[in-house]
């Protein structure tokens, strides 16, 4: 797990190594254990290293295969790297390290751009062919590892974080109205390739981009489950699906035990993280470290679920750690969390993950986390509504159920120069749901949520917040084979028992029943949800700052109405509308965007 950066020039000039060094240094937190920069002609690569596999200096990056004339920087973890190394040895390749980075290079030597098909894991890769000058960029199937791009005159820059690109200089930081529309419609999600900045894009998940020395490029999407009932699973009953899901999750958890350092678990006490603890215990992992965070109550809303996480920790005998955060610390912690965001993220638990990651990083370097189960197995309360219509009616139903607000509402919120001339967010949803596959209305909704919303909300949140403390987070519910299985699972089995029915049935075979059957919990940060004093003061300062007035993003009367009743204005999904508007402005100011 690391941070990568680089530049390729198309104007026959040498790459700007100084800019790559600035980008690399901006990601020091992602890789506190090493730094490297490599350049040759028009291309330069930078890397910050977090030592997880092959702790020796032989595993340092950028890594060059002199015989093949290839240089690579890599962020992530290839869980099947040991098996791949043996397979590649059978093809005649020799290895000088025990790192997964070298396996990535040899896989490219063997299979070319199809190398990604052989990797099981999370990854962002930049690989340079010395002789051709060709650059190959790749991102894992579920977009767990980020890769941001900035096209500048005569060059392309790329990095693991958006702030790193800003550190390189020259980026167009004007706002993208389409992305802002999505941000205000989808609970702060911005679909790839866009970001809220017009000059920064992100490589979509499951994509390989080949960039030629003249600046031309081609993209190839190498993976997408069909979300249909595949013949391979014909005749399977509920018990068969329960067993298949549990076996696939066992494999996913076992894969994510790989490494040369201990692996802990972020334990909320809910079904998803508790399942991970149970399966790690089943694998025989001793002295498993588990970690939970909670917040002080505010406005009568509880801010912790320690009663559940404590029960799971006792049941499996883990080495459990709690972090209780007082409300007066939230406002100061918010600043650090927002500084760690590659894009503005409105969810309350962002600060929770950042504070928890600080605690966890003092104990372990790798954790498993339960993110993704609700999207993959239909765990949210709105999925029955989305499943209640015919397939062709699903886009409109999705807007009604999921969107924070309508296009007409946005016309009253955004300044005219920031409002697109039509509903671009709905347009995206209609186009995504019109793609082939996705047999039922629920299939179409889950496909969109898993491959777009999940990637650019909870998954990005976990990566940004953990990596700001040099902590690697692994997400077994996003094992691509488990996702493929879940996509083929009949919708009624996922919707059963109030959501995640098939996963709950699997959970009862390894967990106490009251852990599985407890009411669904969330991860509230009451001080943010209810605009407690210090948080509200920070919000007022940001929205009244000279930068905000000069930007003219929101209509003055809208901001005034929010500030007059900070805890009353809610989006269609119940989120605090003031926080959503203020977070965007705070993020822009934090990252020096005027």
TrEMBL record:
SUPFAM superfamilies: Adenine nucleotide alpha hydrolases-like (SSF52402), N-terminal nucleophile aminohydrolases (Ntn hydrolases) (SSF56235). Gene3D superfamilies: Glutamine Phosphoribosylpyrophosphate, subunit 1, domain 1, HUPs. The keyword Amino-acid biosynthesis applies. Keywords: Amino-acid biosynthesis, Asparagine biosynthesis, ATP-binding, Glutamine amidotransferase, Nucleotide-binding. It holds the Pfam family Asn_synthase. InterPro entries: Asn_synth_AEB, Asn_synthase, ASN_synthetase/amidase, AsnB_N, Asparagine_synth, GATase_2_dom, Ntn_hydrolases_N, Rossmann-like_a/b/a_fold. It catalyses: L-aspartate + L-glutamine + ATP + H2O = L-asparagine + L-glutamate + AMP + diphosphate + H(+). Belongs to the asparagine synthetase family. It comes from the Bacteria. Residues 2-214 form the Glutamine amidotransferase type-2 domain. Pathway: Amino-acid biosynthesis; L-asparagine biosynthesis; L-asparagine from L-aspartate (L-Gln route): step 1/1. Its EC number is 6.3.5.4. This is asparagine synthase (glutamine-hydrolyzing). The keyword Protein transport does not apply.
């Amino acid at each position: 797990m690391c941070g990568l950066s680089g530049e390729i020039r198309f104007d026959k000039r040498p790459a700007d190594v100084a800019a790559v060094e600035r980008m690399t240094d901006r990601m020091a937190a992602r890789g506190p254990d090493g730094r490297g920069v490599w350049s040759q002609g028009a291309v330069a690569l930078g890397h910050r290293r977090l030592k997880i596999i092959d702790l020796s200096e032989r595993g340092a990056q950028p890594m060059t295969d002199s015989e093949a004339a290839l240089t690579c920087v890599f962020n992530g973890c290839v869980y099947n790297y040991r098996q791949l190394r043996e397979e590649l040895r059978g093809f005649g390749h020799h290895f000088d390290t025990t790192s997964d980075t070298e396996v990535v290079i040899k896989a490219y030597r063997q299979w070319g751009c199809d190398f990604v098909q052989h990797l099981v894991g999370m990854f962002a890769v930049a690989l340079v062919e010395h002789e051709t000058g060709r650059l190959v960029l790749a991102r894992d199937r579920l977009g767990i590892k980020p890769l941001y791009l900035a096209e500048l005159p005569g060059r392309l820059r790329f990095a693991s974080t958006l702030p790193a690109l800003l550190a390189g200089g020259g980026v167009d930081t004007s706002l993208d109205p389409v992305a802002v529309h999505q941000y205000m419609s989808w609970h702060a999600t911005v679909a790839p390739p866009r970001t809220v900045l017009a000059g920064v894009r992100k490589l979509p998940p499951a994509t390989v981009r080949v960039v030629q020395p003249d600046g031309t490029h081609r993209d190839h999407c190498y993976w997408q489950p069909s979300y249909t009932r595949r013949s391979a699973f014909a005749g399977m009953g509920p018990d068969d699906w329960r067993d298949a899901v549990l076996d696939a999750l066992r494999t996913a958890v076992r894969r994510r035990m790989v490494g040369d350092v201990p692996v802990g678990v972020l334990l909320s006490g809910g079904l998803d993280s508790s399942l991970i603890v149970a399966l790690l215990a089943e694998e025989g992992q001793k002295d498993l470290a588990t970690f939970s965070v909670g917040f002080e109550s505010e406005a009568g809303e509880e801010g912790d679920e320690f009663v559940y996480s404590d029960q799971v920790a006792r049941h499996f005998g883990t080495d459990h750690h709690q972090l209780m955060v007082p409300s007066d610390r939230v406002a100061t912690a918010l600043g650090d969390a927002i500084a760690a965001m590659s894009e503005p993220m409105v969810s309350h638990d962002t600060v929770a993950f950042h504070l928890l990651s600080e605690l966890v990083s003092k104990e372990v370097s790798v954790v498993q986390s339960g993110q993704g189960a609700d999207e993959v197995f239909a765990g949210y309360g709105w999925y029955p509504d989305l499943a209640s219509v015919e397939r062709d009616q699903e886009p409109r139903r999705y807007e009604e159920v999921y969107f924070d607000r309508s296009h007409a509402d946005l016309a009253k919120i955004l300044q005219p120069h920031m409002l697109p001339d039509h509903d671009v967010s709905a347009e995206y949803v209609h186009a995504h749901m019109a793609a082939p596959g996705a047999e039922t209305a629920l299939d179409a909704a889950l496909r969109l949520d898993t491959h777009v919303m999940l990637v650019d909300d909870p998954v990005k949140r976990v990566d940004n917040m953990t990596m700001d403390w040099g902590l690697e987070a692994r997400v077994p519910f996003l094992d691509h084979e488990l996702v493929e299985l879940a996509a083929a699972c009949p919708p009624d089995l996922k919707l059963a028992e109030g959501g995640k029915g098939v996963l709950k049935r699997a959970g009862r075979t390894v967990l106490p029943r009251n852990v599985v059957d407890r009411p669904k919990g969330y991860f509230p940060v009451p001080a943010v949800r209810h605009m407690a004093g210090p948080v509200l003061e920070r919000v007022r300062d940001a929205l009244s700052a000279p930068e905000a007035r000069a930007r003219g993003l929101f209509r003055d009367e809208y901001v005034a109405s929010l500030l007059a009743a900070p805890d009353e204005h809610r989006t269609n999904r119940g989120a605090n509308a003031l926080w959503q508007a203020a977070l965007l402005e705070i993020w822009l100011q934090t990252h020096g965007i005027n």
